[in-house]
């Protein structure tokens, strides 16, 4: 259940950022929400479950930021074409999302520590 809560928080954060930036480019809300759902799942699986425990918060935040930039840019270019304003929009989304990811990672780390303390020890 904790995974659903974390992915839901990521989806909410990404939805706010992506809708704020890319809605002005004429994308449909449905395609942007699909993008946000894809971003939430892929960054949670790759960033929070694999990279964060191995490398720490800073490395996972940078990796998530790069991944977000690449996914947003690749997702939007076929629909809109290559424009530098779209490149700037994807970069803006990635930077703001990476800042939010820093705090989401702190939440995930704290949740794991709380869950570990609650687990019964069978000896």
UniProtKB/TrEMBL annotation:
The keyword Membrane applies. InterPro entries: DUF2512. Signal peptide: none annotated. The keyword Membrane applies. The chain crosses the membrane at residues 7-26, 32-51, 58-77, 83-108. Keywords: Membrane, Transmembrane, Transmembrane helix. This is DUF2512 domain-containing protein. It comes from Anaerobacillus arseniciselenatis.
């Amino acid at each position: 259940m904790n995974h659903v809560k974390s992915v839901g928080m990521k989806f909410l954060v990404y939805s706010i950022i992506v809708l704020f930036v890319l809605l002005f480019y004429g994308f449909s809300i449905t395609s942007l929400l699909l993008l946000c759902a894809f971003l939430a799942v892929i960054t949670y699986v790759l960033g929070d479950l694999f990279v964060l425990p191995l490398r720490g918060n800073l490395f996972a935040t940078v990796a998530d930021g790069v991944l977000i930039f690449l996914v947003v840019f690749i997702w939007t270019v076929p629909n809109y074409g290559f424009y530098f304003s779209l490149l700037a929009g994807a970069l803006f989304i990635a930077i703001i999302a990476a800042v939010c990811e820093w705090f989401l990672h702190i939440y995930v780390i704290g949740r794991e520590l709380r869950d570990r303390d609650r687990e019964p020890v069978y000896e």
